[in-house]
């Protein structure tokens, strides 16, 4: 992408654009970044999500803009970043957080279902990163943080489409980290463990019994909070992480490491009390 030059409305505060920033983890990331002095742009499809997210984020006092956007559509993505350039004249951080997911055995996933998930997660991350590049390249200390999941490097039975897409995002994270290092853009990823949000409570963690069962498999014994995920994003975007690029930070209570024989013994009723 060519640099069109900064637009007229250049802001003094750093600007972060968060896809899917109106709900769940995206909104929590926005709240954390606002406390660190960022202006925010949140971008997603639903007018309701954007309006409610914008209202909640403005309670932090900073400038917040909402841009309707389907990250699967490259023309919409390019138009959104052109608008960011016109209205803010800068971009310092892109958080590729938007995602779609559903649980289904792989053989039952339709081509449309596959394309929807891979389109949002992998295509969307690439389209947004590509469109953000000229703006980020102008900002000293710019970075991208991609939100993945540990099945990006493990296995995602029941969510093969999402696992494949997140694995692609992880490969993209590392590739762009190397390609864009010379332009001063760092690219990292955060892999949240299970976190309860309105969206995941409705779609995934539907009962307290399920949450308890999953928590037993997590070495730290509990789900994460949106704030804990947001802390990691804020850190990776900050100057404290200025020598970190191409990395993925799992914020999952040790979940992906597993509990090995401890789990097997516990299931057999023969486990240690921990
Ligand atoms: P969420 O609230 O459902 O967030 C998903 C966001 O993506 C929504 O704001 C949605 O907004 C947006 N979105 C979906 N399709 C889009 C599209 N085509 N274009 C633009 N935006 C789109 O879920 P969440 O739990 O906060 O998830 C946030 C991120 O964390 C995701 O990347 C997810 O994979 C990751 N993650 C979450 C967990 C967890 O337990 N919560 C665990 C591991 C990883 P609209 O509906 O307005 O488009």
Number of helices, counting only DSSP H or I runs of 4 residues or more: 9
The main pleated sheet reads as: 7 strands, parallel
Q: State the strand order across the main sheet.
A: 3-2-1-4-5-6-7
**Chemical compounds bound to the protein:** NADP nicotinamide-adenine-dinucleotide phosphate
Rounded average pLDDT: 95
The CATH architecture term is: 3-Layer(aba) Sandwich
Proportion of helical residues: 40-55%
Structural class: alpha/beta
Unreliable residue runs:
none
- Write down the oligomeric state: single chain
- Shape from CA axes? globular
Q: Write down the domain tally.
A: 1
Strand content: 5-15%
Question: What's the CATH superfamily, by name?
Answer: NAD(P)-binding Rossmann-like Domain
Can you identify the CATH class? Answer: Alpha Beta
Q: Distance N terminus to C terminus?
A: 53 Å
Number of DSSP E strands: 7
Concise overview:
This protein has 274 residues and is of the alpha/beta class. It has helices at residues 24-35, 47-58, 74-88, 111-137, 160-181, 198-203, 208-216, 226-237, 260-267, and strands at 15-19, 39-44, 64-68, 93-96, 143-147, 186-192, 248-251.
Walk me through what this model shows:
By secondary structure, the chain is α/β, with parallel strands linked by helices. It has one domain (15-267): Rossmann fold, CATH 3.40.50.720. Helices cover 45% and strands 13% of the residues. It contains 9 helices and 7 strands, in the order βαβαβαβαβαβαααβα. It has helices at 24-35, 47-58, 74-88, 111-137, 160-181, 198-203, 208-216, 226-237, 260-267; strands at 15-19, 39-44, 64-68, 93-96, 143-147, 186-192, 248-251. It has a 7-stranded parallel β-sheet, with helices on both faces. Strand 4, helix 4 and strand 5 form a beta-alpha-beta unit. Helix 4 packs parallel to helix 5 (160-181). The chain is globular and about 65 Å long. Residues 19-20, 22-26, 44-46, 49, 69-72, 97-100, 120, 147, 149, 192, 194-195, 197, 199-200 line the site of NADP nicotinamide-adenine-dinucleotide phosphate (NAP).
